[in-house]
Amino acid sequence: MADNLLDPKSEAEFKHGLVQAIRPLRAFAISLSGKVDRADDLVQETLSKAWAHRDSFQPGSNMRAWLFTILRNEYYSVLRKRRREVEDADGKIALNTAIAPEQHGHLDLKDMEGALAKLPPDQREALLLVSASDMSYEDAALICGVAVGTIKSRVNRARGSLAKLLSIDSGAEFGPDRTTQAAILAPPSE
Q1: CATH topology of domain 8-84
Q2: Where are the beta strands (DSSP E) in the chain?
Q3: The pLDDT value given to residue 44
Q4: Burial state string for 38-73 with b = 16 or more CB within 10 A and e = fewer than 16
Q5: Which of 69, 68, 58 is nearest to 10 (CA)?
Q6: What fold characterizes domain 102-185?
Q7: Crossing angle between the packed helical segments 137-144 and 148-165, to the nearest 10 degrees
Q8: Residue 53: helix, strand or coil by DSSP?
Q9: For residue 148, with 0-12 CB atoms within 10 Å meaning exposed, 13-18 middle and 19 or more buried, which class applies?
């Protein structure tokens, strides 16, 4: 707040000026926003800001112009903010933008790293070349200096070992856990 508050006489004049400006401010706010409820919010915010910053008002200057400037600035601030917001009354947009929590992914990654470390080096190398590095079996075979069939066999054994180590029975188990999946697919509450 301000250090130099108005004296009682000036404060009474200031209050009177605020009250006198309400109707013209409301008319201006309605002309800007086109909606009575938004206009009333604008006027209320304008009066609140004017009161909070009453020490910055210069007595003797044009209070209406000062208040209209505050209202106009508030209107454009709200307008800019609303442009960045998306109205989602029925929750459909939020439903389609739901993101699974990251902590499960971090835990899954730790589990995968631990399981990879338990694989024999030749299987781990073949799996990482083909699956993680997106190389063809032929390229992986050239890098490892073995036959293509050997790489295919190592990758297959590595995948089977990982599935056992991670207790994975099918590909359907990848992705969000059951609780998260249920939350994502649940209809929005009314």
Answers
A1: Rna Polymerase Sigma Factor; Chain: A (1.10.1740)
A2: none
A3: 95
A4: bbebbbebbbeebeeebeebeeeeebeebbbebbee
A5: 58
A6: Arc Repressor Mutant, subunit A (1.10.10)
A7: 100
A8: coil
A9: middle
| Range(s) within the chain of domains with CATH label 1.10.1740.10 | 8-84
pLDDT tens-digit profile of 90-106?
777 666 665 656 666 67
Residue pointed to by tokens 């939350």: 183
**Per the structure block, which two tokens stand in for 137?**
């079996």
Segments of the chain with pLDDT less than 50: 1-4, 190
In this prediction, residue 2 carries a pLDDT of 45
Question: What pLDDT was estimated at residue 1?
Answer: 42
* Angle 108-112-115 from CA coordinates, rounded to 5°: 140
